[in-house]
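hiii so my PI (J.) wants the whole complex modelled not just the main chain, which honestly fair. so below is everything: two entries, each one labled with what it is. i double checked the lines twice but i was tired so who knows lol
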Amino acid sequence: DQQVKQNSPSLSVQEGRISILNCDYTNSMFDYFLWYKKYPAEGPTFLISISSIKDKNEDGRFTVFLNKSAKHLSLHIVPSQPGDSAVYFCAAFSGNTGKLIFGQGTTLQVKP
Amino acid sequence: GAGVSQSPSNKVTEKGKDVELRCDPISGHTALYWYRQRLGQGLEFLIYFQGNSAPDKSGLPSDRFSAERTGESVSTLTIQRTQQEDSAVYLCASSLGGQGVNGNTIYFGEGSWLTVV
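here's the output for the full assembly
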């Protein structure tokens, strides 16, 4: 039972354009949603999060949107840079269980 | 060190042998997580420790997998009678607390890369 899904395994974007990474979830009890970025041979690093009571959170070039009714969130990166090329994981956190459940990841490639 | 430390960073073992992976969380972090990432796949939850509560073992894939944590410090993940399908990177993470944390205090280690031949 995949509670957090990232249906696009890969995404390729031109430098300077917008990257949009999508994530869907099934459990309406999640309290926070997070995005992590992972380079090869490194652990994931936290990027940005959003509380379930909000619909948008912005941090520099990164914006996360949450649509609770659709159980969908997305990460927007604008403008995209070649250094953004990495695997991006969506994750959902439940305060009740303390669990952080990850999606399968989306590999973003930003072409110069 | 300031971050989550895992050892060994790389381990090659023969099928059927037991392996033990270690995680040193950030000092003071009460919550500790183990995840696994197999090649080409996403992060798979294995087990979660929170303070003195009983660990959540719901993600352990089989009874060959076990994990322990001493108080709020070091954790070891043990895989008995390893199989080739166990080849993966095993990631440990820690956070200040499981309840109510906003998520951005969950820190990951670099991972232990396990190859079963």
